[in-house]
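re: ur question from earlier - yeah i can do the single chain one, its not a big deal. heres the input i used so u can compare w yours
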Amino acid sequence: MNYRTVVSLGEKNVDYLLMKYGDLLVIPHRTGIKRAHVSGLFFGYSQSIRFIFIAFVFYIAGIFVKYYGADKERLFTGVYVIFVGAIGSGVSISQLPSMSKAKAAARQVFGIIEEPTRIDPKQPGQTNIPDGKIELKSLLFRYPSRNTNVLNSLNLTIHPNQSVAIVGHSGSGKSTIASLLLRFYDPTLGQLLVDEVPLKDYSMPYLREKISVVMQEPLLFNESIKNNILFGNATANDQRIREVAVMANALGFIQQNDQDLSSKSVQKNLITAFANALNKPDTTVSQFKQ
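and the output i got, formated as tokens:
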């Protein structure tokens, strides 16, 4: 449950949830305080014992200087070198677990980066979608990392200018269909056609330019609303932005809520509407999880 979902429940419900959440934090808070005291005790012991040991070594060195005539400068240099070397070795050894974790994490990251892609994002192909009829015929799909099918013999036809809502529980394949339309994956079996042409035959840049995806949580950059909107079409001018404001039915909203434009929720709604209008997509895929 995210912040927007909680706020949508109403002020009274939000206060109730905060109170319940505060009650649930009482026991972990007390446990955390006890652990902090124990950790502080051990930390203080570890620090003090180190300095006690250093004082003891210098005490022994002082005895050698006083009673055995040892050279003070050479003795101090030797003790200092031993201390610095021991501290450096201790720090290095203490970092070994972190280095092992970093290696494992880097192995996974570079494994993903270096894995050859099965779908070329620059693949050339057909660059003409006259109508935009989408057909899924006996579609079967499973993710490479899973053994079970997400989609089983799915048949679906979406006609041009038709709005279709796909509803289902979590894991039923709603987002998977969107991913297949964008060719993030290819079907395991079956056909995915656009205007009777297999999706694989289309140019990848052209195909993705014609489809706009509205995610549940739009990403915001630390920029103005205008600059965020321009990510949809960097060449758009102010006149074009005003035109799409009218197209998205957002111009009146902006003018009436000029003082609230810094609000995250307002910005997300505006950016989603503007970016889609600027792009002029032939197909819009919206994903809502709640």
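The first helix runs from residue 3 to 7. not sure if urs matches, ping me
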